[in-house]
């Protein structure tokens, strides 16, 4: 049995600040936003590397992100507000706070919906196959989610049930999120950390699966949905922040269950429809060729034409 004193000595402290001002009266920078932006940057870098290795134009990911990222953030906020409606539109609430995204509150599943729409539009614009982009993005998306969860740590939000485990999370007693009726010094499950570790492991699993199992045509993205959602079912079930309840389960638990099911269906359907490999990261007629190279119509092999072609 771990004593309260021992728990405090080995617990995880929460940051004492969640923002800083560039100068007195100047712009206020929230660590939550910095974590989200950092995650997006790392996801773009990893996705660019993976797309380029497939033969796509370097940094075409930026063209797609210009549509996908804003729509993902907007949809993530809308999803969060709709699933926590009493917090923003209930008695005594300030409806304008629904716009205060810097205070936290964006939902991953909303981001996936909005991001998917934006990515589809971006792929139509650039000629990249949508499923090629989704597969290239999958590991980077998990990495971004892992980094973004540190924003919840800075905001002291979205923690789990009270616990006496050595890695319990400290929450300021005067924090509005601190559950009433609990003693000062109570520790909580650090669900942000659980998800960071789960997502980090998932990045390695997806990179391995993509390389060793040649999962294309959206199958790697399907594995992402299954992996992330399976973990989310667990973490979401022990969170104690307010949430709408449907048939005894939090809305995000239901979303995670649907995420697993959609991933399984996508994995099965795409495996049956496309048993082979993608011939190109581009849709037919929209191919991009690096200067001095020609790409075969049937393979991903490139032929250097910077020198005259001769028979051998």
UniProtKB/TrEMBL annotation:
The EC number on file is 2.5.1.145
- This protein's gene is called lgt
One GO molecular-function entry: phosphatidylglycerol-prolipoprotein diacylglyceryl transferase activity
The annotated topology with respect to the bilayer is: Multi-pass membrane protein
Compartmental location: Cell membrane
- At the top of the EC hierarchy, this enzyme's class is transferase
- Transmembrane stretches, start-end: 29-47, 59-79, 99-123, 130-148, 192-210, 217-235, 247-269
Q: What is this protein called?
A: Phosphatidylglycerol--prolipoprotein diacylglyceryl transferase
Purpose of the protein: Catalyzes the transfer of the diacylglyceryl group from phosphatidylglycerol to the sulfhydryl group of the N-terminal cysteine of a prolipoprotein, the first step in the formation of mature lipoproteins.
Pathway given in the UniProt record = Protein modification; lipoprotein biosynthesis (diacylglyceryl transfer)
Q: Which positions are annotated as binding a 1,2-diacyl-sn-glycero-3-phospho-(1'-sn-glycerol)?
A: 149
Provenance organism: Microbacterium marmarense
């Amino acid at each position: 049995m771990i004593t309260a004193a021992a728990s405090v000595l080995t617990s995880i402290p929460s940051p004492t600040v969640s923002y800083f001002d560039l100068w007195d009266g100047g712009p206020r920078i929230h660590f939550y936003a910095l974590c989200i932006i950092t995650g997006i940057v790392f996801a773009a870098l990893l996705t660019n590397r993976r797309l380029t290795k497939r033969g796509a134009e370097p940094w075409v990911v930026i063209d797609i992100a210009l549509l996908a990222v804003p729509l993902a953030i907007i949809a993530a906020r809308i999803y969060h507000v709709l699933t926590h409606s009493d917090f923003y539109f209930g008695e005594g609430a300030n409806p304008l706070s629904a716009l205060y995204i810097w205070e936290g509150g964006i939902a991953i599943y909303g981001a996936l919906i909005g991001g998917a729409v934006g990515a589809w539009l971006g792929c139509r614009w650039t000629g990249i196959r949508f499923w090629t982009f989704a597969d290239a993005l999958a590991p980077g998306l998990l990495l971004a989610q892992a980094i973004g969860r540190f924003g919840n740590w800075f905001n002291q939000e979205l923690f789990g049930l009270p616990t006496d485990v050595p890695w319990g999370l400290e929450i300021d007693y005067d924090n509005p999120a601190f559950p009433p009726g609990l003693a000062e010094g109570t520790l909580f499950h650090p669900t942000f950390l659980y998800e960071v570790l789960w997502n980090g492991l998932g990045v390695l699993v997806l990179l391995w699966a993509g390389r060793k199992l040649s999962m294309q045509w959206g199958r790697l993205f399907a594995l992402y949905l299954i992996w992330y959602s399976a973990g989310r079912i667990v973490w979401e079930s022990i969170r104690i922040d307010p949430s709408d309840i449907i048939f005894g389960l939090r809305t995000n638990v239901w979303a995670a269950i649907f995420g697993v099911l959609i991933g399984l269906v996508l994995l099965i359907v795409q495996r049956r429809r496309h048993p082979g490999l993608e011939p190109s990261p581009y849709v037919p007629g929209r191919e991009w060729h690096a200067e001095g190279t020609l790409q075969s119509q049937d393979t991903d092999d490139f032929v250097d034409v910077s020198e005259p072609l001769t028979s051998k």
